[in-house]
What does this fold into?
Amino acid sequence: MSLNARKKSAADAAKAAGVDALLVTHLPDVRWLCGFTGSSAALVLRNEAASGARSTRSPIRAVLFTDGRYIAQANAEAVGTEVVIATKPPLTESCEWIASAGVKRCGFDRTHTTVAALDNMRKAVPAKRRKSLFVAVDPLIAKLRQIKDAGEIASLRAAALLGCRLFDHILSFIQPGMTEMAVAAELEHAARLAGAEGMSFETIVASGERSALPHGHATLAKLPKRGFVTMDFGVVLDGYCSDMTRTIHIGRASAEERNAYDAVLEAQEAGLAAVRAGVVTGDVDAVTRSVLRRAKLDQWFTHSTGHSLGLEIHEDPRLAAKRTEKLKAGMIVTIEPGIYMPGKFGIRIEDSVLVTRSGCEILTPSPKAWIEL
Ligand code: ZN
Ligand code: ZN
It folds into this structure.
């Protein structure tokens, strides 16, 4: 989808929400709409057809406000968008522009606008318009971003495959006695050398009893001679995130550990098999949970089954209990059941998948069968 098509769909969503302009400040939304990747931005989208303004241009007017650090970058990236280098804070200047351009009702994202920001937005416009001009709307751009287009899918696929290559690499690197930090550092170093712009989130390496921490960030703890190592990591390529988790075992495992691993793997594969366009997200969560219930392990499954991802690591829809959104073709979601038994061990297995009409395509095809190093 071209940037112009994205702006058009955003303007249509704004119109449907009853506003004639949209102020976009959440940076991933700004990037998705106009291509700008800088850290300071306020983007105004205005449907000029709705306002009756006469113009030979596209009826969608997009104006990006940023600051002096980004003159060259904004002009290079935000092709097709008017760029204003603000001398005041970009948010203030964008709101002044909105008021002077005759916008009647400007939507702002209720989930990404702080009380302080709203205060500043209102102070930037004439007193008589302070109450009526800005209207809180649902996250319209996040909703549009849920379905990935062909270019986005290609970027997400490439990021996921790099993640798989890193997992292969780390298997040959891991030794008992090295620190979790050393494992995380090697993963991240190799990711950078392979072209990753960064990691999607703080790399999780949790070993031995620490594997029972669902978000056990790497520490100076040493990998045990016998025990699990959970690694959950992702890279950013072309702005898009990858996400995968594998749990391996160092040394010989007990029957309990082995059975628990098999149960988590069965739950994860049942979750994958349940993914298809039209399926309710909460139902996928119920599938993974029911497998672990049969194995009498569900009390240790203390988080939801998965989430969507794209420009951000955690996007909607979530695959969680009682959620009612339906999966659609073109969504990218994770399936990541896990169990965490305090004082003993933890296991999680996570793939990222592309939702299709008939099922899903696994973007992270690294081996999941029992690995004992
Ligand atoms: Zn993950
Ligand atoms: Zn995840």
